[in-house]
Amino acid sequence: MLRIPKPKTATLIFSSGKMVCTGAKSEKEVRKAVNTIINLLRNHSIEVKGEPIIEIQNIVASANLKALVDLERAAYLLENSMYEPEQFPGLIYRMDGPKVVLLIFSSGKVVCTGARKEEEVQEAINKLYDKLDQLQALILQ
Fold this sequence. Notes:
This protein is α+β, with helices and mostly antiparallel strands. Helix content is 29%, strand content 30%.
């Protein structure tokens, strides 16, 4: 594992030449981190052929809906959702378009996972807010 301070990331480097980079705060930071690591490897006489192919597999993002959420109501009315408060305090909602999984908490905090682009995160959060508002599951403060 290789950690770099700027952007603050941790990267696993495999003998196959593949790398897994985590911790970047944006797609731009991922590209910067990968390029920094490639330069670091080259500066230490490690042969790196060509330019890296950067493929974002999974973005994990958090958001705040700035409203409380009635999880019982949302679970009852939202398709593809699961809510078992004895097991986990959040509602798990599998959205079809964009294809992401959202963890929704009664505080209005949301974790979005599975997106491949930042725009998909924004689209998912906006669609979620509109859907919860339409279902009257938001409690505006």
